[in-house]
């Protein structure tokens, strides 16, 4: 296997070079020097001064040293240490401490849907070793639908319903349900609160005759949850199809409440569906990118009206479309440059991803090669091919998912696996087995908040 990779700069985990002190251990106590640690930075001093009284100490251990030691301990062990005393629990539960600890321990947590034998659905937060950090069952009262008159009523789960998690990178989780094509739910794992987003359309669209005639029979072609950087607001955008039209609506989430859908201008052209195995939508820094559908019109008319690889971008802050972004040059001319391929092939090969906080166009020429094109300049549509892979990575149903701090890349497989590729060694190995690799997100919140 060969791969062209860019140099990746990892960030060290402080816990990997320090000794974990367990005050619950029955072994002889370790005597610590009565001096301040050299690594007690201003941040540590600020945390300790705000959270511990000036006289707080552990024997001869100064307060700054105590905070520094606790910040070095992995979150899973730190949760156990909260039982030592009330002051430790208060310290390690404070937002200031949690934020500082999160900045030091950057190993990602994953979000996957689960389903048990009693047909109950829910969401698991897991680490990269597959350990379940927290299981959040779906509450039956969260499964609601709204009729045309605005009446809301609960629906009990059934055996053929299931949850599908959107591919997000946030401290919120957005998921859909198989039996409710217009339904969206947003979960805050830290509080356990699930917002049920309205299934009805916005007021701007509700009076449309075609929408009224097709009430409840629409299909969400694509949806995404993102956060506005300047305000911290969470917003959801959905692109729904009614007849041959695509409608755009946005809703703002506010803590434990959500507003109403607001009708927005339709996409500049048809966008590809991003449901199920089609990864054709990505969110980067408050902008939602949709891969535009170049194939449907070409298939029916034989005329190519949209350039292959083109991307529609929607700004969640301004709630406006930002125009059409050209895809990488070799993607646009792929069919012209390769006489053995047609637009039907290219239609199956393209997807979008968010990797290393960049928009990535994935050109997966199944069983031949996979190119990862990183957007480096939005205004001038400049793309850089940072990775080139051969089979078995270049295979149907394989999608890049996450770049780890050590440079490894996680790929999701249609068979329910996450695999990792290490560019330093050229090895490709199983990383984690999940129920549905298409239904998985990244949780950026702290384990200490769960």
From TrEMBL:
Transmembrane segments: none annotated. Gene3D superfamilies: 1.20.1280.50. InterPro entries: F-box-assoc_dom_typ3, F-box-like_dom_sf, F-box_dom. Residues 1-28 are annotated as: Disordered. It holds the Pfam family F-box. It comes from the Eukaryota. Residues 55-101 form the F-box domain. This is F-box domain-containing protein. It comes from Lolium multiflorum (Italian ryegrass).
């Amino acid at each position: 296997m060969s791969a062209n990779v860019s140099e990746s700069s990892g960030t060290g985990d402080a816990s990997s070079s320090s000794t974990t002190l367990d005050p619950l251990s029955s072994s002889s106590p370790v005597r610590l020097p009565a001096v301040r640690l050299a690594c007690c930075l201003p941040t540590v001093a600020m945390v300790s001064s705000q959270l511990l009284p000036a006289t707080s100490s552990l024997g001869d251990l100064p307060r700054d040293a105590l905070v520094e030691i606790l910040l070095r301990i992995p979150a899973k062990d730190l949760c156990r240490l909260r039982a030592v005393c009330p002051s430790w629990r208060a310290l390690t539960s404070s937002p200031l401490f949690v934020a500082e600890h999160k900045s030091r321990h950057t190993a990602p947590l994953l979000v996957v849907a689960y389903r048990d034998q009693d047909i109950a659905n829910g969401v698991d937060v897991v680490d990269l070793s597959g350990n379940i950090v927290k299981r959040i069952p779906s509450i039956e009262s969260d499964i609601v639908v709204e009729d045309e008159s605005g009446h809301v009523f609960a629906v009990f789960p059934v055996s053929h319903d299931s949850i599908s998690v959107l591919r997000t990178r946030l401290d919120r989780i957005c998921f859909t349900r198989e039996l409710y094509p217009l339904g969206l739910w947003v979960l805050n794992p830290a509080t356990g609160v699930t917002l049920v987003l309205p299934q009805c359309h916005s007021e701007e669209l509700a009076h449309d005759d075609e929408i009224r005639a097709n009430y409840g029979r629409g299909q969400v072609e694509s949806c995404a949850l993102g956060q506005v950087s300047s305000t911290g607001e969470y917003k959801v955008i959905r692109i729904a199809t009614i007849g041959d039209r695509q409608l755009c609506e946005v809703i703002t989430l506010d803590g434990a409440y959500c507003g109403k859908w607001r009708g927005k201008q339709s996409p500049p052209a048809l966008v590809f569906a991003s449901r199920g195995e089609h990864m054709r939508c990505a969110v980067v820094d408050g902008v939602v990118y949709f891969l535009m559908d170049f194939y449907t019109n070409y298939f029916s008319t034989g005329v190519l009206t949209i350039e292959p690889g083109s991307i529609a971008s929607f700004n969640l802050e301004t709630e406006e479309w930002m125009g059409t972004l050209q895809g990488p040059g070799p993607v646009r001319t792929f069919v012209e440059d390769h006489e053995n391929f047609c637009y039907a092939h290219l239609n199956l090969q393209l997807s979008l991803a968010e990797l290393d906080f960049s928009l990535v166009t994935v050109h997966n020429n199944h069983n031949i090669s996979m190119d990862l094109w990183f957007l480096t300049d939005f205004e001038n549509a400049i793309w850089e091919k940072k990775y080139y892979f051969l089979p078995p990575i270049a295979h149907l149903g394989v999608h890049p998912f996450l770049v780890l701090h050590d440079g490894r890349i996680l790929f999701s497989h249609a068979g329910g696996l996450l695999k990792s590729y290490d560019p330093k060694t050229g090895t490709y190995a199983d990383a984690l087995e999940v129920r549905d690799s298409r239904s998985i997100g990244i949780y950026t919140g702290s384990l200490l908040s769960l």
